[in-house]
Every structure is written in C-alpha cells, then in structure tokens.
C-alpha cells in the first residue's frame, strides 16, 4: 500500500544504511542510490512488497522489474546462465549491466516481479551503498527507477522526492549518480544475445566480450520481451524536438559540444550536456538537464544532434522516447 507518512531521508552512514536494510526486510519501499539512477527498492521475494512498487510508481503490472543482487553467486541462485551470460557477468559485474535469463527453478524472485514471465532480469550494481544494503538484506531486491512511470529517471534525492514524496517509506541519500543513465539490458535466453535497452555499458564494450554485435530487440515485434521498452517514456512535461538546427523564440534548449543552432539568442533557457562533446559526461547530466529545462515552463525542449557512439547510443534512445508521441 502507498505510505501516507512523509518520506524519511536517510544519511549514507551506518545508521542510515541499517535503517534502509531494516525497512526493506520488513517489506517497505526505500529509494536507494545506484551508479546508474536511483532505484525504488523492495523485497523481490515478497509479492505484497512488489505490488507496492507498482502502486507507488503507477507502473503497469505487465512491465517486469529488475532483481538486484550483491554478487554473481547470489544472481546464479535466481537465473540460469548460459556461456554468454556467464562471460558478460564476469566482464561487467558489478556494474551497469542487466542480464535477462531463464528464471531458476529454486529462485526466490516472485512471479509478480517477473510480470509472470519465465525469465528474470538480474543486476549486480557497482554502487558501494547499494551493494552493502543488498548484502545485509540477503534477499533479491526489485528496483525499477525511482520515478513515476513514464517520467524522467532520477539521479538525485531531489528528483526522487519530486515524484515519490509521501509514497515511499524512505530514501537513502547517495548524492548524484555517477553514470546517470540506466543499465544496459541484454537477454541471454538461448540463441544469440539480444540488446533490449542500450545503457551504461556501451555496444563497443559488449562487442569486445561477445565477439559479435548483439542483435537488437526481442526478435519478434509483435511480442516485445522488454515491455517497458516501447514508445513514450522518459517524458518531460514539455514536448521534445530532436536534431534541431534552428531555435524558435522562447524554446528551452539542450546543447551538446560546440554546435550552436540558429536563433539560440532567443532561447528561453539553455542547458549544456557536455561542452567538450564527451558522451560519458553528457549521460551523467542528461536527466538533471531535462528536469531543469522542464521546470522553466517552456512548451518545447529543442535538442541538438548528439553523436551515437559510446554512451551516445543510450542518450539518443532516451531522447527518442522522450520525443515519442504520447
Ligand atoms: O539502471 C537500472 O537498470 C535501474 C537501476 C535502479 O538498477 N533500474 C531500471 O529499472 O532502470 P526499470 O524498471 O526502470 O527498467 C527495467 C527494464 C524495463 O524496461 C523492463 O521491461 C525490462 O528491464 N525487463 C525487466 N525484466 C525483464 C524480462 N524478464 N524480460 C525482458 N525485459 C525485462
Ligand atoms: Mg525506468
């Protein structure tokens, strides 16, 4: 059920970590920092705790959640790893990679967290606070991004509270998320691995381990296996225009690198993702910049072209969803 008390703000010290772990163990909702974005955490083995996540986020129940584990050994208790999954886990865990694998018969991630699918999404995050909490709770922790469904993902406590204050028991303050964009989701379900969502691990990094470029999507457009991966998402209130070369008067503008679109001097408000054109820096600032531009009240956010290499692929993926018809 949705908490009707104000959300506790926990400091990243022994007391705060202890309280976060205690609340999670008791089936409550706690937003926790990870290296990608803040996660809305709950006990993934407890259906009522998982139901509370869907309710607080207003997330459709057909969109499954990622289960977070403290290490690969714990993850292997929940899923069946083929050779490819094992190689990816070895290369990128702990870190911003999520593996979708067949759920293990003895696993404890509940049916609701998996949205009834025979597969399970597993991630071992790299953030020290997240790992400490996971180790203490000793159960898989379901954690979607800690925003209202369809909205911009949170990279700070202020973002979490803007969407969820009063709806969750607590938020653990871990400052600003370093990667700033969600994990890369790869499905290893027999056959070639598939990239379901570009994210913090780049395509080039995956290729280095796989030896091949991963196929994109579910391989069956009529039945997407990443239900949350379609259409409008990451949406600010304002409309979003991409690859903009001319700014309309009063528009909010998102810049990257040294390109200056025509009409920029008539813009309402301007944010720059990375002056030096660095996609890693840009990813870490993307969601904060979108939230700030939206807060200006502008009707449109105009975004200049951003190269697709490195984390640019994930940035473009999120911006395309933000610009998708609603
Ligand atoms: O970086 C992240 O991954 C963050 C942090 C908190 O770990 N979490 C996150 O969760 O982004 P969420 O729920 O916002 O995104 C999880 C994505 C969704 O698009 C969901 O559809 C997909 O993973 N997913 C989860 N389980 C799946 C499954 N069994 N098969 C296919 N896709 C799955
Ligand atoms: Mg999300």
UniProtKB/TrEMBL annotation:
Role according to the record: Required for the formation of a threonylcarbamoyl group on adenosine at position 37 (t(6)A37) in tRNAs that read codons beginning with adenine.
InterPro entries named in the record: DHBP_synth_RibB-like_a/b_dom, Sua5-like_dom, Sua5/YwlC_C, Sua5_C, T(6)A37_SUA5, TC-AMP_synthase_SUA5
Keywords of this entry: ATP-binding, Cytoplasm, Nucleotide-binding, Nucleotidyltransferase, Transferase, tRNA processing
UniProt keyword Nucleotide-binding present: yes
Cited PANTHER family: SUA5 (PTHR17490), THREONYLCARBAMOYL-AMP SYNTHASE (PTHR17490:SF16)
Protein name, entry field: Threonylcarbamoyl-AMP synthase
Location in the cell: Cytoplasm
Organism the protein comes from: Methylobacterium thuringiense
